[in-house]
Amino acid sequence: FFCQSGSMKKRWMIFVLACCLTAGITGSVVYAYLIDQKETVNQIRILENTTHIEEEFEPPDEVKPGQVIKKKPCIANDSGFPVFIRARVIFSNDRGEAQCQPLEIADSWKKGEDGYYYYQKKVLSGQRTDVIFDKIVIKNTVKKDELVSFDILVYEESVQAEGFSSPEEAF
Question: In sequence order, which residues have a C-beta less than 8 Å from that of residue 132 and are 6 or more positions away?
């Protein structure tokens, strides 16, 4: 090996040089591949979903059998985008519920299996739902001395409507 002729040495040097160049180029390509990066900046905007309950309510001075009490709850959308809304209507006690006729829920509200009423339209920014019900009727069959005090609680939830085709799907 050490006693090689001049042309053999040249070939050997060219071979070693070619190997070094190939290794250098390959290493540069691999390094470039490994450090290559692309960047995407995704901005995520947090939107505040706010709604509130509004109602017309005229509490009576004295409750009597057969009385009709005006109560008209609806929900307003304070958000800057359309929302779907659901509401739950609950009597504060069973005796109070038993002394009333069933509430007449508006057609635009559909009762779900979970006990919530789903408003069947998107509520646009600044708009309100239809009233859920418009009155409470005390049964004629209840005796005045058996009447009990009660409250009707309306609880509501809303969710951004974008991406959903129905309120049931949204919730």
Answer: 73, 74, 87, 89, 105, 106, 109, 117, 154
| pLDDT tens digits, one per residue of 82-137 | 999 999 999 999 999 999 999 999 999 999 999 999 999 999 999 999 999 999 99
Residue with tokens 């070939």: 11
Question: 13-38 in b/e burial notation, b at 16+ Cβ within 10 A?
Answer: eeeeeeeeeeeeeeeeeeeeeeeeee
DSSP secondary structure string for all residues of 15-77: HHHHHHHHHHHHHHHHHHHHH---------------EEEEEEE---SS--TT-EEEEEEEEEE
Tokens of 86: 């659901």
| All residues at 6 or more sequence positions from 49 whose CB lies less than 8 Å from its CB, including other chains | 79, 83, 158, 159, 160
Predicted local distance difference test score (pLDDT) of residue 135: 96
Question: What is the edge-to-edge ordering of all strands in the sheet holding 51-57?
Answer: 51-57, 68-77, 135-137
Q: What is the pTM of this model?
A: 0.72
**Residues paired with 52 in a beta bridge:** 76
